[in-house]
């Protein structure tokens, strides 16, 4: 695969993630102009650690980036992860956020979990009646007499 083809894949992945050159540069720790040179194929000696960092910044398979795989998406432990549409949207949105935005998302999701735990705890503590709802009229009258006798 040529440097230009690798650059096209970087650009494709960046567009797919709606990331700017600056976003990628900051995540990788390189200059914006360096990312641009990788995308345009103008880097003569491509450094694999840099390509791997770019792939990670864009959440794509590094092997796909260099043409060694047709699988664009990352997989964990050689097993593809199947995500629902909502999970994909959440990850896509998260990846587009700044580091501050990502921190807010994490904090918010933790608060939601805490609320759900509290709701389950409160439901668990709800009182349960000590009698059946199918008590006959005769039994009710007997209970009333017992109460009067007390």
List the topology elements:
Layout: H1 3-16, H2 21-28, H3 32-40, H4 48-57, H5 62-65, H6 85-96, H7 99-124, H8 137-149
Helix pairs in contact: 1-3, 2-3, 2-4
Key structural traits:
434 Repressor (Amino-terminal Domain), 2 domains, 64% helix, 0% strand
Architecture overview:
This protein is mostly helical and 150 residues long. The chain folds into 2 domains: 3-82, 434 Repressor (Amino-terminal Domain), CATH 1.10.260.40; 97-149, no CATH class. It has 8 helices and no strands. Helix 2 crosses helix 3 and helix 2 (21-28) crosses helix 4. It is rod-shaped and about 100 Å long.
User: Which descriptor suits the 3D outline?
Assistant: rod-shaped
Number of strands: 0
Sheet with most strands = none
CATH H-level superfamily title of the largest domain: lambda repressor-like DNA-binding domains
Secondary structure category: mainly alpha
Element-by-element helix/strand order: HHHHHHHH
User: What's the multimeric state?
Assistant: single chain
Low-confidence stretches: none
Rg to the nearest angstrom? 29 Å
What is the CA–CA distance across the termini?
A: 94 Å
Approximate helicity band = 55-70%
In the CATH scheme, the class of the largest domain would be Mainly Alpha
CATH architecture classification of the largest domain = Orthogonal Bundle
How much strand? under 5%
CATH topology call of the largest domain: 434 Repressor (Amino-terminal Domain)
Q: Number of helix segments?
A: 8
Mean pLDDT: 83
**Tally of distinct domains:** 2
């Amino acid at each position: 695969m040529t440097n230009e083809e690798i650059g096209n894949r970087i650009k494709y992945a960046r567009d797919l993630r709606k990331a700017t050159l600056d976003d990628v540069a900051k995540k990788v720790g390189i200059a914006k102009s360096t990312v641009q040179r990788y995308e345009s194929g103008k880097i003569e000696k491509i450094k694999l650690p840099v390509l791997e960092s770019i792939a990670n910044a864009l959440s794509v398979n590094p092997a796909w980036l260099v043409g060694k795989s047709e699988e664009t998406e990352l997989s964990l432990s050689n097993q593809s992860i199947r995500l629902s549409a909502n999970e994909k949207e959440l990850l896509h949105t998260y990846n587009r956020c700044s580091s501050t935005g990502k921190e807010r998302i994490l904090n918010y999701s933790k608060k939601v979990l805490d609320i759900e735990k509290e709701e389950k705890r409160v439901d668990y503590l709800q009182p349960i009646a000590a009698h059946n709802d199918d008590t006959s009229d005769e039994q009710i009258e007997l209970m009333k007499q017992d109460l009067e006798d007390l």
